[in-house]
Amino acid sequence: MANYYTDHPEIAFHLEHPLMKRLVELREKNYEDAKKGIDYAPVDYEDAIENYRRILDITGDVAANVIEPNSESVDLEGPHLENNRMVYASKTFENLEQTRKAGLYGVSMPRRFGGLNVPNVIFSMMSEIISAADAGFQNIWSLQSCIDTLYEFGSEEQRTKYIPRICAGETMSMDLTEPDAGSDLQRVMLKATFDEKENCWRLNGVKRFITNGDSDIHLVLARSEEGTKDGRGLSMFIYDKRNGGVEVRHIEHKLGIHGSPTCELTYKNAKAELCGDRKLGLIKYVMALMNGARLGIAAQSVGVEQEAYNEGLAYARERAQFGEKIIKFPAVYDMLSRMKAKLDAGRSLLYQTARYVDLYKSLEDISRDRKLTPEERTEMKTYSRLADAFTPIAKGMNSEYASQNAYDAISIHGGSGFIMEYKSQRLYRDARIFSIYEGTTQLQVVAAIRYVTNGTYLQVIKDMMQSKVSDAMKPLKARIAPLVDLYEKAVNYVKEANNEEVHDFLARRLYDMSAEIIMSLLIMDDASRAPELFEKSANVYVRMTEEDVCTKAYYVMHFTESDLPSFRAE
Fold first, then answer.
1. CB count in 10 Å sphere of residue 211
2. CA 537 centroid distance within chain
3. Which of 87, 90, 33, 99 is nearest to 63 (CA)?
4. 25 with 359: CB under 8 angstroms?
5. Is the sign of the CA dihedral 225, 218, 391, 544 positive or negative?
6. Which residues does 95 contact at the CB level (< 8 Å), separation at least 6?
7. Closest CA relative to residue 114, chosen from 165, 45, 78, 64
8. Among 316, 321, 435, 518, which lies 20 to 30 A Cα-Cα from 237?
């Protein structure tokens, strides 16, 4: 029987990463849950890893044997509107039922609330697996991670009230964007007013492009400070669908991810609770939400990268032209090898980022119970900085790779890839949104570029260059060394130009170079530890990086202000 976890040993490989020991130690807080008698809590590191394997195995089974077989039906039917309520596609209800029965909710939440208490890296693996089966359903399922923000910033009363419901399988959404506030969330105008009589907040206005917008529990960004027009007047609220006051006005008809309902909502005096402190909705809480969501899109992207590669490989092995299987044609096996290299390097970047997030978030959680030692505070700051630096490249690069792999899968299929009966066209339609929502790739560049110019990525690269690799990887590492020098020169060239417009124009090229060198070093490390899984991909990816970095460095270092496009002032 198919299993989307065990069928891909590259996922399980990442459970053995050296950082996992420290990560689990912090997450389990000296295995205190087992000592309290919670029977499903691990008693030591080996038990924790085995627990993760079981969860991933269950996820892989449900993904392969329930969600994937339902995916075409969900894509064709999609959600619909009935009496101002969103109704999922019929097979989506089956997916929800089966994932609930399998206990795949409240994944990251503490066990005292009924959660599984697994780290983000495991949640990312689960997200990848579910996305490979159906990226649209992954949206619905993975939005349970919004509860992390409520756990982090809500009151204990709110945690006790809402977290067990998510652990039981209720759904969530984050209601941020509006018709006049997309990427620029400072323009949010949904109004929040305090009802003195009822001792609650009331929300009025419209939200647009809300994924899973008719969910059970919403986190809502609204303007609580009358007379303000910027981010300082925004707060975060919790809206419970049980209280009413919100209607679905419209469900968007989208190019892809048809199973994921994208709603326009009208808030009419809807009762809500303040989450955290006033005025910090955008400045603090949305940033936490968005960072988690961006990692979720990176995982969603890796899932589609994997499935696109699977579809392309299977077709190339079966399809014959001119008397032989097309997988033997250089043009085809070049595409397939690049698809696999992007997948393996992108997955490595995703899980490295997730581990950094886990390490600093776990220490942050521990700090709520006791004072951290100076060493722990330093550790938390280090991993927080790395998580912030890696998140925009994990999201940006993987979302682009998903589209590229899906595009190549269609190319391998030839004319058949353009036919709706083949899965490749759906993967292509689904993948296109990944580099748009939760911050376009261009916005990921904006988020990342300061780590280029302040030397963070360069220092990370130089530190990684000091690590040992296997003898087989040493020639590849020697090829990376001159690329690092080229990269450093390109960064310095842009900084010395001292021209903000030139800096912004070249930022994407510097971003790509940073990410590709980091991913080359990550995949070489993976190949050193598991050559049977990653040696081929390491060879291909390093050569791709060499080709790209040399080209981009030449472009950057021969660019002047006069080369800026003439239409920029139009």
1. 25
2. 22
3. 99
4. no
5. negative
6. 66, 67, 70, 74, 134, 137, 140, 141
7. 165
8. 435
How far is it, in rounded angstroms, from Cα 354 to Cα 295? 7
Could you give the CA distance from residue 531 to residue 527 in angstroms, rounded to a whole number?
Answer: 4
Q: How far apart are CA 245 and CA 310, in angstroms?
A: 45
Of 527, 473, 537, 132, residue with least CA distance to 340: 537
Q: Which pLDDT does position 181 carry in this prediction? A: 85
Cα(163)–Cα(19) distance, rounded to whole angstroms? 28
Which SS3 state, helix, strand or coil, does residue 413 take? helix
Q: Where are the alpha helices (DSSP H) in 102-218?
A: 120-133, 135-142, 147-153, 156-167
- How many angstroms separate the CA atoms of 95 and 73, rounded? 12
The secondary element (H helix, E strand) that includes residue 80 is: strand 80-82
Span 187-204, pLDDT tens digits: 999 999 999 999 999 999
Of 89, 93, 90, 82, which is closest to residue 247 (Cα–Cα)?
A: 82
pLDDT at 536: 98
Under DSSP, is residue 271 helix (H, G, I), strand (E, B) or coil?
strand
pLDDT at 569: 54
The answer to whether the CB of 105 falls within 8 A of the CB of 163 is no
Look at residues 513, 470, 521 and name the one whose alpha carbon lies nearest to residue 489. Answer: 513
CA distance 37 to 431: 44
Q: HSE of 104 in the Cβ direction (CA atoms, 13 Å)? A: 31
Among candidates 326, 342, 315, which has minimal Cα distance to 536? 342
pLDDT (0 to 100) of residue 79? 98
Dist. CA 365–CA 529, nearest whole Å = 32
Helix (H) or strand (E) holding 272: strand 262-275
Burial class of residue 401 in the structure, from the number of CB atoms within 10 Å of its CB (0-12 exposed, 13-18 middle, 19+ buried): buried
Instruction: Categorise residue 93: left if φ over 0, alpha if ψ from -120 to 50, beta otherwise.
Output: alpha
Residues 6 or more apart from 368 whose CB is under 8 A from it?
none
Element (H, E) at 59: helix 45-62
Q: How far is the C-alpha of 279 from the C-alpha of 270, rounded, in Å?
A: 20
Q: Which two tokens stand for residue 299?
A: 């995982």
Report the C-alpha gap between 325 and 329 in whole angstroms.
8
CB neighbour list of residue 452: distance below 8 Å, 6 or more residues apart: 458, 491, 507, 510, 511, 514
| C-alpha distance from residue 447 to each of 218, 392, 396 (Å) | 26, 6, 10
Question: What's the residue count for the chain?
Answer: 570
Angle, helices 135-142 vs 90-101, to 10°: value is: 50
Rg over alpha carbons for the chain, rounded to the nearest Å, is 24
CB burial class (10 A; 0-12, 13-18, 19+) of residue 247?
Answer: middle
pLDDT of residue 14: 98
The span from the CA of 399 to the CA of 146, in Å, is: 21
Q: Measuring CA to CA, which residue among 406, 409, 360, 411 is closest to residue 382? A: 360
Q: How high is the pLDDT of residue 567? A: 60
Q: Which residues fall within 8 angstroms of residue 80, CB to CB, at 6 or more apart?
A: 86, 87, 251
CB 223 within 8 A of CB 282: no
Within the chain, which residues score under 50 in pLDDT? none
